[in-house]
Design goal:
The chain is mostly helical. It has a domain at about 90-295. About 65% of the residues lie in helices and about 5% in strands. It contains ten helices and two strands, in the order ααααβαααβααα. It has helices at about 10-20, 20-40, 50-75, 90-115, 130-175, 185-205, 210-225, 245-250, 260-280, 285-295, and strands spanning about 115-120, 240-245.
Length: about 300
């Protein structure tokens, strides 16, 4: 029996589960599993993607991983859910949406100045509901998986720098499975999105800013500018646009994300946020260095 005021040492199984890399695997499985289950359920119904119900379909697919992460935090990791803390959420989400829009429009504008992008006219509503659904799904799901689960748990072992590098590389590698992907496209995603979105999380230690950037980036590119999002094919959105010139400038069939211009613009923005996170003391040393300081 334990005396009053004493705390019991966690058992071997609990210590194994509580190890960061174990938590990373369990958390990733729960987040992905929730998305798969909800997607299977949604696909049982004949819902047109480019309709208001299609957008709700995307919202459901985006909320499922977030709810799974809340269950993971409460019952598996047994810690506070800081990543979705509500104080300041509206401000950070709004700033993220604005930043994602500005970065994509700014990149397109620079490509246009170099002769690689033109606005031919206005189409109308186009694939509005489809791209809204994509934005409502992609931001919450991918940021929960890559930043809240993988980056955060890796950081506890290898430190912020190596965790960011690993998740950025993994994020770029994952996009190589997309249609029309090239090795340069994967490298561009690694640099511009892996660093930018990782920095958005590290700066706030919440996901609202990163989700806003991610969702607005996809929606602006796919609907407003009618550019393929990560190689997913033609995207008839609000504007009728054309891209002509070398692939290093236009991004080719993968879309503007594979343009050197976008690579430079978004990476610089990410590095600026990383510098701010460093100044605010948000970087964590690797576990072996932290242990040495305790000796």
């Amino acid at each position: 029996m334990t005396q009053l005021g004493e705390t019991r040492e966690p058992g071997r199984l609990r210590r194994f589960i509580a190890y960061p890399l174990t938590l990373m695997v369990i958390g990733a499985a729960m987040v992905i599993g929730a998305l798969v289950i909800v997607s299977i359920g949604i696909n049982l119904f004949d819902i047109g993607r480019n309709s208001p119900l299609g957008a709700l379909r995307g919202l459901a697919a985006g909320l499922a991983p977030v709810l799974a992460y809340a269950v993971f935090g409460r019952w598996v990791e047994r810690g506070p859910n800081r990543e979705f803390a509500t104080p300041g959420a509206a401000r950070e989400l709004g700033l993220g949406l604005l930043l994602g829009f500005v970065l994509m429009v700014g990149s397109a504008g620079l490509v246009a100045l170099l002769g690689g992008f033109r606005i031919e006219g206005v189409l109308g509503l186009g694939n509005f509901w489809t791209m809204l659904g994509v934005a409502l799904y992609s931001g919450p799901f991918e940021e929960t998986l890559f930043r809240a689960v993988i980056l955060r748990q890796l950081e506890r072992v290898v430190g912020t720098f190596w965790a960011l590098a690993a998740t950025a590389a993994f994020f770029g590698f994952a996009h190589l499975a997309n249609p029309n992907a090239t090795f340069f496209a994967g490298f561009a995603i690694m640099m511009e999105a892996g660093i930018l979105l990782g920095a958005a999380y590290l700066l706030t230690r919440r996901l609202w800013l990163a989700i806003g950037v991610h969702s607005a980036w996809n929606f602006t590119q796919g609907w407003l500018l009618s550019i393929p999002v990560s190689g997913t094919g033609p995207s008839p959105g609000l504007l009728v646009t054309s891209r002509t010139g070398p692939e290093w400038l236009t991004g080719g069939d993968f879309g503007l994300e594979a343009s050197v211009v976008t690579l430079v613009v978004a990476t610089l923005a990410g590095l600026a946020m990383l510098r701010r996170a460093w100044q605010r003391g948000e970087f964590v040393a690797p576990r072996w260095q932290r242990n040495q300081t305790k000796l």
